[in-house]
């Protein structure tokens, strides 16, 4: 494995984890999302798809698998109730439309 391939693999892991956490921090139901959250979610989706396709087209198979895997891990971590609550309380962009729907944990 060359240094460039290893660098791409590690970078795709970090980027996938970050994007997964961002996806997971948003509300799950679209009825609870604000317009701003919907637009950010669409932009994140477009960015994720573009990065994934770039990895596939450049035949970085392991990096593309790692990218998807780490996105799922990041999403799962962000959906842990304590972590999700921390994101919602700390950053305004992740708050649902109606804060009363957020369960106290």
What value does the Rg take, in angstroms?
16 Å
Unreliable segments of 5+ consecutive residues: none
CA-to-CA gap between the ends?
46 Å
Largest sheet: none
Number of domains: 1
What is the tally of beta strands? Answer: 0
Give the mean pLDDT.
92
* Broad shape: elongated
Transmembrane segments: 6-28, 40-58, 64-88
Keywords: Membrane, Transmembrane, Transmembrane helix
Explain what the structure shows.
Keywords: Membrane, Transmembrane, Transmembrane helix. The model has no long low-confidence stretch (mean pLDDT 92). Helix content is 70%, strand content 0%. With 105 residues, it is mainly alpha-helical. The chain has one domain. The protein starts with a helix and ends in a 15-residue tail after the last helix. α1 runs parallel beside α3 and α2 runs antiparallel to α3. The chain is built from four helices and no strands.
Strands, helices and their partners?
Layout: H1 3-25, H2 35-57, H3 61-78, H4 81-90
Q: Main attributes?
A:
transmembrane, 105 residues, transmembrane helix, elongated, 70% helix, mainly alpha, membrane
Short recap of the structure:
The protein is mostly helical.
């Amino acid at each position: 494995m060359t240094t460039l391939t290893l660098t791409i693999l590690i970078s795709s892991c970090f980027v996938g984890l970050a994007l997964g956490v961002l996806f997971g921090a948003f509300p799950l139901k679209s009825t609870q999302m604000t317009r701003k959250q919907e637009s950010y979610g669409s932009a994140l989706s477009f960015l994720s798809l573009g990065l994934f396709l770039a990895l596939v087209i450049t035949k970085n198979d392991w990096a593309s698998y790692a990218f998807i895997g780490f996105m799922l891990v990041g999403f799962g971590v962000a959906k842990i109730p304590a972590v999700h609550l921390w994101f919602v309380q700390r950053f305004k962009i992740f708050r649902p439309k109606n804060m009363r729907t957020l369960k106290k944990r």
